[in-house]
From TrEMBL:
ACP-like domain mapped to chain residues: 80-174
Lineage: Bacteria, Pseudomonadati, Pseudomonadota, Gammaproteobacteria, Pasteurellales
Natural source organism: Haemophilus paracuniculus
Alphabetized UniProt keyword annotations: Signal
Protein name from the UniProt record: ACP-like domain-containing protein
Keyword Signal: yes
PROSITE patterns linked: PROKAR_LIPOPROTEIN
Length: 185
């Protein structure tokens, strides 16, 4: 039975190969090489996206002009991070690592005890406080928060966003100056 299946598979493969032309083979080879090159380019792009904090990055914008020429402009992005350790009510500790781009805060990764809460982005719509949000969490700090005074600004609270109400995980957080200094040597 297995021999019959094997022989029929060989017969089908032979018939198909006889029907294909050299251009089909070349086209398939070209597509395979193109796909491989695209995968390599995407991999390099993903690695380049993960540049470490503290390194000046450049962004190159390419623009087609009306005359059909290509113009490029390069902009330097100064990215840095700063870690602040907070002591909150009920003896909870929150470690916040803020990401800054050109001196402006953009995002924060938090650690509540041993629980990592990553990827909270700046909420530009918040006017009362500096607020960071993700799908499941919200972190609020005082309005005067900036790169220059991050180690002096208190945090208001960390909340887990619920369907009907939010759960406060940490509140009234003061900067733990000694622990913060150890992180930012």
């Amino acid at each position: 039975m297995k021999l019959v299946k094997l022989l029929s598979a060989i017969a089908v493969a032979t018939a198909l190969s006889a029907c294909s032309t050299a251009s089909d083979v070349a086209s398939s080879a070209t597509n395979a090489v193109s796909n491989a090159a695209s995968s390599v380019a995407n991999g390099v792009s993903n690695v380049a996206t993960g540049v470490a904090d503290g390194v000046s990055n450049t962004v190159t914008k390419v623009k087609d002009t009306a005359a059909g020429k290509v113009e490029t402009t390069t902009t330097k992005l100064d990215t840095t991070s700063k870690t602040v350790v907070y002591s909150c009510q009920q003896k909870k500790s929150v470690t916040a690592t803020y990401a800054f781009e050109n001196g402006q805060v953009k995002a924060v990764n938090l650690k509540l005890g041993k629980q990592a809460i990553n990827g909270l982005m700046l909420d530009a719509n918040s006017s009362d406080v500096v607020s960071f949000a993700s799908k499941g969490y919200r972190w609020n700090v005082d309005t005067d928060f900036s790169l220059e005074n991050a180690e002096k600004t208190t945090a208001i609270h960390l909340a887990k966003i619920g369907k009907q109400s939010d759960q406060l995980l940490a509140k009234l957080c003061e900067v733990n100056k000694s622990a913060t200094a150890r992180y930012n040597k």
